[in-house]
Specification:
Blueprint lengths: L27 H8 L6 E4 L5 E4 L8 H13 L36 H25 L34 H18 L11 H6 L1 H17 L5 H45 L3 H11 L2 H9 L2
Antiparallel strand pairs: 1-2
Helix pairs in contact: 2-6, 3-7, 4-7, 6-7
């Protein structure tokens, strides 16, 4: 029978170690935030019931407005008009017209176009909430190359297709990319090329967070006073399309920023390699194109 080794009987590889551990130098903000658990990741659900990983350190600046929109969308506006998604009968969105439930307000089943419009409103609001939760750090889940959205790139058809390779990134990567692009633009003296003002590139990279509030205000104002189902659809579908385009524009800007950072890293690597005679010869005698070769000769 094997002998049980009790804790403390064998202190392992470090039992004779006499050195000291390296102390990580943390600033007061980082130290207190960590001690208070602000960066602890916990499991949670968002407004639409999606599973997310969150931390107390961050907030979505649109959260209050999104919560009000969600409540009006699902529960109605409290008047004699829009009764909310929860008031629609089971089967209102059936794919087959023959089994589609009659909506009391209309006195008939909804048409395919009406169903798609209402699904678009709910789906894109869900996706916008997901997108801004990721952008703001409220949702820490790393989706990799998976599509985190419920409508865009899934049900939206060609109108709301998600380009391959364009995916939201966690807040740590977003902030790092933003800092890198800022450093590159400053080094190249090209800050003005990405817009107006020194922070314009961030205004573009975080477009939904920065500029989405005005559109959400319009949606909330209308949905709060919508007179009924068709009035709701007609009144907000245009704003919903703007939100979808804003998400796609953000992802396109992110893809461009990542490529810009990648290009800068490669150019910096090549410059550092010139101190190695072998690699310098490989570049100058072999693989460097005309423009790069002339630049190397100019500064060597």
């Amino acid at each position: 029978m094997a002998q049980t080794i009790l804790p403390g009987e064998d202190q392992g590889l470090f039992k004779d170690f006499e050195g000291t551990a390296i102390s990580q130098n943390l600033g007061p903000i980082a130290k207190e935030s960590l001690q208070n658990g602000l960066f602890d990741v916990t499991d949670a659900k968002d407004l639409w019931g999606n599973d997310i990983k969150t931390m107390a350190a961050f907030k979505n600046p649109h959260s209050e407005k999104m919560s009000q929109i969600h409540s009006n969308l699902y529960n109605g506006n409290g008047g004699s008009g829009w009764g909310g998604l929860n008031s629609l009968p089971f089967g209102w969105d059936s794919s087959s017209f023959s089994t589609r439930a009659t909506v009391t307000e209309l006195g008939r089943p909804m048409t395919d176009a009406e169903i798609f419009s209402l699904q678009s409103i709910n789906g894109i609001l869900n996706d916008f909430n997901m997108h801004t939760n990721i952008q703001s750090g409220v949702n820490q889940r790393d989706y990799g190359q998976a599509n985190p959205f419920s409508f865009i790139g899934v049900q939206g058809g060609s109108t709301f297709s998600l380009p391959n390779g364009h995916r939201p990134q966690p807040i740590g990567q977003m902030l790092s990319i933003g800092q890198s692009v800022n450093a590159i633009n400053t080094a190249l003296g090209a800050a003005a090329a990405v817009g107006t003002g020194p922070c314009a590139f961030l205004d573009e990279l975080f477009g939904a967070l920065s500029k989405g509030g005005a559109i959400l205000n319009q949606i909330l104002n209308f949905i709060s006073s919508a007179l009924g189902l068709l009035n709701l659809i007609a009144g907000v579908i245009g704003y919903i399309t703007q939100l979808a385009r804003m998400i796609l524009e953000d992802l396109a800007k992110l893809a461009g920023a990542v490529q810009r950072v990648t290009n800068a890293a490669l150019s910096g690597l090549i410059e550092s390699l010139l101190s190695d005679p072998c690699l310098r010869h490989l570049l100058t005698a072999g693989i460097a194109g005309y423009g790069l070769l002339q630049t190397i000769k100019k500064f060597s």
